[in-house]
Amino acid sequence: MQEDGPRHTVPVHRGGKGRMTSFIKIVSYLFFVVTLSLALALGYLRQNPEFRHRWFASVCTCLVSNQPEQHAIRCDLLKDVRGDVLELGPGPATNMECFEGKTSITSYTGIEPNVFLHEVFRNKTAHLSLPFPLELKTLEGEHSGLPDEMFDTVVFTHVLCSVHNATQVLAEVDRVLKPGGRVFFLEHIASPPGSWMRFFQKTIEPVWSIALDGCKFPDTHLLLERFKNQGKEGFEVMYHFFDAPMPLAIVKPHLMGHAVKKGREAGEQ
Ligand SMILES: C[S@@+](CC[C@H](N)C(=O)[O-])C[C@H]1O[C@@H](n2cnc3c(N)ncnc32)[C@H](O)[C@@H]1O
User: Fold this and answer.
1) Is residue 127 part of a domain?
2) Domain carrying residue 111
3) Where is the Methyltransferase type domain (predicted)?
4) Residue 147, phi then psi, degrees to nearest 5
């Protein structure tokens, strides 16, 4: 038998509180979906090097194509490049416009491990007036296998942040460079210790590095200080810190400069 008694009804709130609850629910779902998608994308990038290289090739090509102020800084750094030139990680040929019409260059060799950037490099250089033989090889800066003391100049820009082992890359630079040869470099770096920007860089670094094919925020000046004692004779290294005109504040801290390999032929290029 069903008892007759007072009926309890659940009050329906249709006012501001109800709308707020629905809003929080929607935001939570959206947050969950966005976080899950990002986690899946990063996980996939992390475990699939081919996809990571392909993705980075497109990102890198878009990012560097539109930066006239940066271009001027690069070309000023590279104005004295000469002889047989080796470039580490030329990417989408970012620096090649600086070498247009340069008869002081006798040959150019680029070593680029990301094969998806090779076509971009070739397409870009095909439209430039480069009066020297050009070669692009699929090699890594840590162990290029190129002959000892083959080059007069080594160039690398925004590369030490991405390599597996920067110390090994610099040892290799020493090996392939002739005595008296010069190294030109431009690198984005970590902000000084104790700064908010460094805290931010180091916090985001694990995810940043997956999304941008190994790119980190290194203390490159410490490497360069050690580079002064690289090899038998060492290097004379000159560099300065500056804020580059980059669209994102996190990659503004930079250093650039050049190094000269000491040795019997130093200064006689
Ligand atoms: C941020 S991009 C810079 C490209 C170009 N140099 C520029 O200034 O725009 C880093 C480049 O270094 C290359 N790279 C990564 N690891 C390398 C390695 N171990 N040896 C040589 N290049 C490497 C990447 O494939 C990529 O082309």
Assistant:
1) yes
2) 60-261
3) 86-185
4) -60, 155
Q: Is 258 in the pocket of ligand 1 (CB under 6 A)?
A: no
**163 CA distance to ligand 1 centroid (A)?**
7
Query: How far is residue 64's CA from residue 7's CA, in Å, rounded to a whole number?
Result: 71
Domain count, the chain: 1
Q: Could you tell me if the CB of 112 is within 6 A of ligand 1?
A: yes
Please say whether the beta carbons of 182 and 237 come within 8 A.
Answer: no
Give the distance (Å) from ligand 1 centre to CA of residue 17.
54
Tens of pLDDT, residues 219-268 = 999 999 999 999 989 999 999 999 999 989 999 999 999 999 998 654 45
Side by side, the strands of the sheet bearing 105-111 are 134-137, 105-111, 83-88, 151-157, 177-188, 253-261, 235-243
Residue located via tokens 């942040």: 161
Is the model's pLDDT at 150 over the cut of 80? Answer: yes
Average pLDDT of the residues of the chain: 91
Dihedrals phi, psi of 175, to nearest 5 degrees: -65, -45
Q: For ligand 1, is residue 94 a contact (CB within 6 Å)?
A: yes
